[in-house]
Write a structure and sequence with these properties.
It is built from eight helices and ten strands. It has about 300 residues and is α/β, with parallel strands linked by helices. Helix 5 packs across helix 6. The strands form two sheets. The protein has an eight-stranded mixed sheet with strand order 1-2-3-6-7-8-9-10, sandwiched between helices. The protein has a two-stranded antiparallel sheet with strand order 4-5.
Length: about 300
């Protein structure tokens, strides 16, 4: 199983998850929003493909998924502006892409794949994040991943914004990549690199920081779309009891693994500690972490990377 290594981290934390139920929000979403979830999940999926995060691939090369799980990315004729992989201590991996047909700049981060990624996941001490907000604290491993990668990313975004000032930047990621995407979007918004709002779409994100951080990111302009799936255990980590909180709202997909969700299969829940959705589930379905609107990690090579 491609996500079996997550079991070790989840097993360590699962007994600490607490919370009290909160009433559900709306029980379905618009077809336009579901279409956005499909699109940006596929951009996140492409970050798992070695050819889309390889430092040796050239500027302007296509972003594609050889496994066929990101056809919308290919149809949009997305090309690479900057790629990063295996160049830092945390092994943060992903790409900056561009699609003229959708007038989008994409920043996508890959989820956990290597030993260094899983060590990063386990570095859950809360540390100050002054580049985001003075009173905020974030998971040290996630913040280190952003700090290690941001110089090249910000240079690529600054250049793209100068050339295409009307384009929208969307930051996305799955799992570990979703957590890093949260921090990246927050800082890029603060910097004002883009002349348009910066949107954030995450899939299967763990909690990223304390309540001050979650409230700060939630209040930023641009839109925060945090998508969870059934009883995927990863969004329940690190536990609330460790001082962590989620951004709001949550878009909880209730369709089973292997089933493409419809508009009625997504519940919208508000609050940074709402346990009516994913956080209130008692299951331990790691397979659910690998399926959101499709097989999000399908492009990842099989096997665990000891690097």
């Amino acid at each position: 199983m491609r996500y079996h290594c997550l079991v070790l981290i989840v097993a360590f934390f699962v007994s600490f998850v607490t919370g009290s139920p909160i009433s559900l929000g709306s029980r379905d979403i618009s077809s336009d929003l579901l279409a956005n979830f499909n699109l940006y999940e596929q951009f996140a999926a492409a970050a798992y493909c070695p050819g889309d995060s390889n430092l040796t691939s050239g500027f302007g090369t296509p972003i594609t998924c050889p496994t066929g799980n990101c056809p919308l990315v290919s149809a949009a004729q997305t090309t690479s502006l900057f790629e990063f992989d295996n160049a830092f201590f945390t092994d943060v991996t992903g790409y900056v892409g561009l699609t003229h047909s959708l007038s989008l700049i994409i920043l996508a981060f890959r989820g956990s794949k290597s030993l260094r990624n899983f060590l990063t996941d386990g570095d859950f001490i809360l540390v100050p994040v002054p580049s985001i907000c003075p009173s905020c604290h974030a998971h040290q491993g996630f913040y280190d991943s952003w700090l290690e990668s941001k110089t090249g990313i910000l240079a690529a975004l600054t250049a793209a914004a100068a050339l295409y000032p009307s384009y929208t930047l969307v930051v996305t990621g799955h799992s570990l990549g979703a957590a890093i995407a949260d921090l990246a979007a927050a800082e890029v918004r603060n910097m004002g690199i883009m002349t348009t709002d910066v949107a954030l779409y995450t899939f299967g994100s763990p909690r990223v920081g304390d309540k001050a951080l979650s409230d700060y990111v939630t209040a930023q302009a641009g839109g925060d779309f945090r998508v969870t799936h059934t009883d995927d255990p990863v969004p329940r980590l690190p536990p609330i009891d460790f001082g962590y909180a989620h951004t709001s709202p949550e878009y909880w997909i209730t369709a089973a693994t292997g089933v493409a969700p419809g508009t009625g299969d997504v519940q919208v829940l508000t609050g940074d500690m709402n346990t009516s959705g994913n956080a209130g589930q008692g299951g331990f379905d790691v397979v659910a972490h690998g399926w959101y609107l499709g097989p999000i990690g399908e492009c990842s090579p099989s096997g665990f990377e000891f690097r």
